[in-house]
Amino acid sequence: MSEPPVVLITGCSSGIGKATALAAAARGHRIYATARDPGSLRELAAGGRIRTLALDVTDTSSIGRAVASVLGEAGRLDVLVNNAGYGQYGAVEEVTEEEWRREFDVNLFGAVEVTRAVLPAMRRARSGTIVNVSSVAGKIAIPFAAPYCASKHALEAVSDSLRVEVAPFSIRVVVIEAGPIATRFGERARASVARMLESPGPYSTFYKNAERAMDTDFQAGKLPPEAVARVIVEALESERPKTRYRVTRMASALIFLRRFLPDRFFDRRMKKILGLPDRV
Fold it and tell me: Residue 264 and which of 26, 66, 167, 189 are 20 to 30 A apart at CA?
């Protein structure tokens, strides 16, 4: 009987990462769940089936130590799930340079650096699966969420390039395009725009409607994180996984429609949802 796959997952303190660690462990996989703060992983570690490690995706040394620990203990690394990420919201003009860079450091460059760290071992083994957790926002740009959308658009582009580059080494690359999921993501996103919500500015009158839309229209058909975890486990267990998996009806419908409907249609739809006037 073959040994269970060794799976490294980033961003496991809550939400999709935590649910994926539990779901994959229940299937008998050997799980290494990681987070910047290892204290946030106590619940996962308590069961004894999941190994937890500190891994800050913005710190190259932290990434190197975590990957070395996995390879030192397990001798191989079969699956990487790049899940760590957060949402920086706000108007393009009002999000600071530091906030823009931080969003990309976590959501894009973090995923790239962890991938770069695991690829040598996967290439030697001539086997491996990399799962990049994206979003419907990777295909549909949402006003007042440009930093998050841009980082996910970029992650999708990296995934498409990487999938072809590593195919000769029998390494698969999968993208998960999730719609609204019941996690602490929205709570953290609101915290990231607290400064803008509290101070007057050219977009301040629009933020209230945008916040309402984020809690209502953009949450239609919301699913629990376990729904995404099931899809990730399906992908990593498949001998020939799809290149993309869409989770929630909203994600499937919007991404399908975006291929055929013009930009101005989506502009009008977004203005209506967000209650934006044609001019002020």
Answer: 189
